[in-house]
Amino acid sequence: MGLPGSGKTTLAAELTKHLNASWINADKIREKYNDWDFSKEGVLRQAKRMREVANKQKNKFIIADFVCPFKKGRSLFDPDYLIWMDTISKGRLPTFDDSFEKPEKCDFKISNFKSKDSVNQIIRDIKNKMKFE
Questions:
Q1: How is residue 2 annotated by DSSP?
Q2: Cβ contacts of 86 within 8 Å, gap of 6 or more
């Protein structure tokens, strides 16, 4: 999770290459459902939808990349492992700049995204914390 332009999709693509996981991208899900409502209600609906799509995946491990700017949305999605891309203070789209609620807790926080180093650290951390095959 993180602001638009923080590197979520880039990180998710890299993790998907190295882990046996399915990948769900929020923009692709919004496109599939033709739902581009970025109001708080629309964003919370998207968090529920992302969870529903994740639950339907056959793969045990899912990588979901989306802004998820509200604590309630993160609770609705209920990730087993949360990566916070805290790499920018303003998003490429200003929609969430003022309303973004920083997580009180995350499993991994990236403040300076260097793809290869971050990916390797996250993979080690995931394998240590979760039973990852």
A1: B
A2: 2, 6, 102, 109, 110, 111
∠104-130-76 over CA atoms, to 5°? Answer: 45
Q: pLDDT digit of tens for each residue in the chain (133 aa)?
A: 999 999 999 999 999 998 889 999 999 999 999 999 999 999 999 999 999 999 999 988 899 999 999 999 999 999 999 999 999 999 998 889 999 999 999 999 999 877 677 889 999 998 888 765 5
**Domain with residues 8-129, CATH architecture:** 3-Layer(aba) Sandwich (3.40)
- The Cα 29–Cα 83 span in angstroms is 20
Total-model pTM: 0.92
Please, are residues 81 and 56 in contact by the beta-carbon 8 Å criterion?
no
- Residue spans of the domains in the chain: they are 8-129
